[in-house]
Each structure stands twice: as structure tokens, then as C-alpha cells.
Amino acid sequence: MALDSTRRHFFFGSMLAGSVPLGGFGLVPSLKALGYKSPNETMNIGAIGAGGKGFSDLRGCDGENIVALCDVDDQRAARTYNTYEKAKRYKDFRKMLDSERGNLDAVIVASPDHMHGTQAMWAMQRGLHVYVQKPLVRTIWEARQLMDAGRKYKVATQMGNQGYSNEGTRQCAEMIWAGEIGNVTEVHSWTDRPMWPQGLASVPAGSDAVPATLDWDLWLGIAPDRPFTIGGPGYPNQYGNFYQPFNWRGFYDFGCGALGDMACHILGAPNMALRLGMPTSVEAIQREGVSDFMFPRKSVTKFEFPARGSMAPVTLYWYDGCEETPKIKGVPDGQLLGDLPSSPRMMKERMAAARAGQRPAYTGMIGGSFDYEEFRKVMDDPEKRFPRPDGSLFVGDKGMITTGTYGSGTRHVPVEKMKDYRFPEPLLSRSPGHYRDWIRACKGGEPACSNFDIAAPFVEWMLLGVIALRVEGKLEYDAAKMRFTNNNEANKYLKPTFRKGWTFAG
Q: How many alpha carbons lie under 13 Å from residue 409 in its C-beta half-sphere?
């Protein structure tokens, strides 16, 4: 049984000092004094990277005005263009930001990772609120630049890691702060990504004609020049040509590999619950399929965090390229699912009942509170489906907790401990929904839960792992000086290079 709220504050008050505050997730309790829009007004929003993920980000902003769209590939953005027919269209984000000056309130950045920092900086310099897809940026220097810019230009910011808005993420933090599993000394987090090619040995020779719908030079942006290629035999694959529209994630020059794709989601609960701050060291302790220009096919990365207040030092292990959930010592077989199994039949029944007004739709499997009885029903259903291997395990000296991809399905291990379990009384403010969280901040509400003051430090330590995948050995990190103390080669990857004609700010 969880400790009552008063006792938890008494025993864990010093530990909670400096954690995410009750009143919000930013430096100030409200942004109204900064002259932002009234909550009753609609915003004018533009999107950079309107196709792909940009489309779903825009759909998350229903009720606001979508007035400008930018994408370097007309084909990729066709669905978005057709959905928002009245929005003006651009291929160059710089032209959109200058042409729409005074007409835009906010911008969504959903382009490939290597362009996030530059595009977000240009937008913030023009006084625009920004929502930037995870992993926010490709390098640590860019993360710090965006954090500073958010403060300087006094704009509302949010990174696209939905798990930070989830109920389960907050429940996980509150369970750990209540001391339910004691001192947490290990975290194990895993994913089945990459789904796209990584670890290739060579780049196809020659070049192919650039499709008429694509501006290849603008797609490259700040990255080093190279010829366009479809990719040779086996391409286009299910994710497109050799580099684009989606395979870019595996390349050092464009993406951050599996860590960049999934760590901002899966590691959100550990980051919040354990107040991780900066690690003292990081090391890729296993790499399979090492390449000169791409991330490995499969890897295991080890982060070492020092004590934080009364919280013990913790070692975090990240596993990617998983075909199944890792076998972790001390965990009963079949208990470590991360994400919960689902039952299509039960979900259809629930949704039908909800539409008929008979009961609310069940959300326990996709982000709401874990419900033991519902879990048992799903496990007994012959039609149940098991999820891909994505999740986290917290190992304490008094027990274990596991969470899913977005912090969903938070529960004790073994799961029988959840029978008749009551979650601790809430300590943290709850999110109105990931996109509404950002929109509320833009209109004068409290800062979004993954605003850049929260997101940039989180991304910084995640990007240390991205760098560790490129070099041999253990890296010692001095966060105050933003440098590795024992590896000059690794220091080369802290900041991006800019192709001639491109600038980070403009």
C-alpha cells in the first residue's frame, strides 16, 4: 500500500526538491505576463516538414488555423496539402518564415533531425512558438542553443515526446518518489528499432535523377553535399529511397539512429522519475554491424549517473535492435512485456459501449491507469496480441516497476502485486493532452511539460549515447564544459558543421 500524501512529503521532501513542480513544468507558473494570446483565440500555425509526421502533428492541433505549409517534397506532402487546401505552400522554410511574418503565431518542425535546430532557431528569432519533433536536435550544441533561445525570445516550446504527457509516466515517478521499490540503482530500456537499414558497408556508386517533386538541395540543408540516389538493388524499400523520405534516420549526417527515434519516448519515465540530470560516463558496450557512415544494426549502451540528492547512483542500459524483450536477471519469465498486450475484440466491445453511452472507453492499455482486472481478461483472451519489444524496467532494492513505450501501463513486477493496488495520490500536475499542452502554453497557460528547459537537458544526455555509438571505449563527460575529457574524437560530434550558404541563425 502506498504511503499517504502527507507522509510521502515528509519522508521524500528533500528528494523532491527541484523535481517537476506541482504548478507546471517550466521556470515560471504562467506565461500570461509575456503577452501571449488569450486562450479563447485561435492560433495561426505553420508546419516545416508538412508530410509524414508533420501531418499527424497538425491533426493534433485541430481547432487552430493552419495557414502555411512547407515541405521540400510535394509528393510526400500531398496528403497534407489536400487536407489544408487554403494554406499557403512553400519549399524553403526561410521563405515561409519571412513571407508569413506577422501572419504566423507558431510553427511545427517535423523535418529530418539534422534540420530541426536550424529551423526552430529561425522561427524563434521571429517570435514564433515552436513544437519540434523528437529528438529535438542532432547535436548537443544545438540543444543548448534552443534552450537558451526559448528563454531569450520568450516563446512557448515543446518537444514531440508524447510520453511526457502520459498519465503512466507521472504515476511511475510518484510510485518511485513514494519509495515503493526503494533505491533505484538500475534501469533497463529496450526497443525493436531500427526498422530501417543500419550498419551498411558502402554507399551506392553513381547517382540517379532527382524526382521532379523533390528539391534535393533543400532536403540536404546544412548537411554535406552528396548526389541523390535511389539506392540500387533493394530500393526503394518500404521506407523509400536510400536516404529519403524515411531511411535518413540511420545515417550519422541526418539522424540519430534508434536512440533518436525511440529514447525520447521510452526514457521519458526514467528521466522524470529519477531526475537523471547528466551522466558522468557513457559507453556502447555492444555494437553489431558497425559502419563508417551509419549507426550499427544493433547495440547496447551504458549510462552511469551519479547520486542526485538523496537518490542513489544509477546505471541505465539501453538495448536496441531487439527481436524480443531482454532477459534481465531477477525478472520472472513472462513478466517483462513493457507495453501491454491488447485484445482487438475487447477494444471493439469497449468502444461500442462507449459510443452507446454505457461506459467510458478503456484506456488502460494505451496510456491510462493500469487496471489489473482488465489485464487478466486480456491475457485470458485467445485473440490477444503481444506488442513489439519496447519498454523500461526500474530495479530497486525493494522491488521493480515496468512501463511501456510512452510510459503507459505502469505497474509493479511481478504483476500480481497490482491486484487491489492503489496508485499514490498525485503530486504532479496532469497534462490536458500532448498537443493541447503546447497550445495552452502558446495561449498564456503554464509551460508545456516537455518545454525546452526540460527537453534540452534530457536530449543532451541521450545524445551522449548517440556519440558513443560512433567511437570506441568509455566516454567521460564534463557537462559544465560540454566536452569529453578523455576522447578528442568524440568532441568533434558535439556540434554540427554547416554546408556553405547555410547558417544556424538568420
A: 26
Task: For the beta carbon of residue 378, count every other beta carbon within 10 angstroms.
Answer: 22
Single out the residue of 340, 331, 361 nearest to residue 410, CA to CA: 340
| Domain 24-164+435-457: CATH class, spelled out | alpha beta
Q: Which residues contact 381 (CB under 8 A, 6 or more apart)?
A: 343, 345, 346
Closest C-alpha among 435, 469, 328, 466 to residue 389: 328
pTM of the model: 0.92
Low-confidence ranges of the chain (pLDDT < 50): 1-15, 17-24, 26-34, 361-366
Pairing of strands 400-403, 411-413: antiparallel
Measured from the Cβ of residue 419, the count of other Cβ atoms closer than 10 Å reads: 11
Within 10 angstroms of residue 209's Cβ, the number of other Cβ atoms is 7
In this prediction, residue 470 carries a pLDDT of: 97
Q: In sequence order, what are the residues at sequence separation of 6 or more whose Cβ sits closer than 8 angstroms to the Cβ of residue 235?
A: 241, 242
Contacts of 477 (CB under 8 A, 6+ apart): 278, 279, 280, 281, 282, 464, 483, 484, 485
Domain boundaries, the chain: 24-164+435-457
Phi and psi, residue 339, nearest 5°: -70, 150
Model confidence over 191-211: pLDDT tens digits? 999 999 999 999 999 999 999
